[in-house]
């Protein structure tokens, strides 16, 4: 992928000012737990078990080089399993939602240095964001709107 369309977009954000409820904080300030991700060939029975042990509702799915491919919606997967539409030995890749990357929908890079104001913009129409390193080689954490709300509450705003 050496074309310019495969380059990640960088989130624009307003400069820190009086109206910034995050006071210039970045993703790293959220102190998120390390991400838990699945290889694409993991069995769905194991994926559901691991998700419930950790109380995660979405799990990133990675390729053999640890790059994000998509995610599993754990509740939806469990429903399919209970309805007999999925076998416990099926691979998670069969049921994952693939990340959409194209010229019109480029990958948005979210790193520990991403300002929370920019993250809030990103999460306006998404359930969660993957926090990765700048090279997108490793998934470091998963962040949700609730994480942002908890951060503001902890700061007493």
UniProtKB/TrEMBL annotation:
Residue stretches making up the CBS domain: 27-74
Gene3D superfamilies attached to this UniProt entry: CBS-domain
Organism domain of life: Eukaryota
Name the UniProt record assigns to this protein: CBS domain-containing protein
Naturally occurring in which organism (per UniProt): Phlebiopsis gigantea (strain 11061_1 CR5-6)
Biological classification of the source: Eukaryota, Fungi, Dikarya, Basidiomycota, Agaricomycotina
């Amino acid at each position: 992928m050496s074309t310019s369309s495969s380059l990640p977009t960088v989130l624009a954000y307003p400069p820190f000012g009086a109206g910034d409820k995050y006071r210039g904080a970045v993703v790293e300030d959220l102190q998120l737990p390390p991400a838990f991700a699945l290889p694409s060939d993991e069995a769905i029975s194991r994926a559901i078990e691991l998700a419930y042990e950790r109380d995660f509702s979405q799990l990133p799915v990675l390729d053999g080089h640890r790059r994000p491919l998509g995610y599993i919606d754990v509740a939806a997967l469990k429903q399919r399993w209970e309805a007999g539409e999925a076998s416990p030995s099926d691979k998670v890749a069969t049921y994952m939602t693939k990340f959409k990357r194209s010229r019109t929908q480029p990958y948005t890079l979210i790193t520990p240095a991403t300002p929370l104001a920019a993250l809030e913009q990103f999460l306006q129409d998404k359930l969660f964001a993957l926090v990765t390193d700048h090279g997108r080689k490793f998934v470091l954490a998963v962040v949700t709107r609730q994480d942002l709300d908890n951060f503001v509450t902890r700061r007493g705003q």
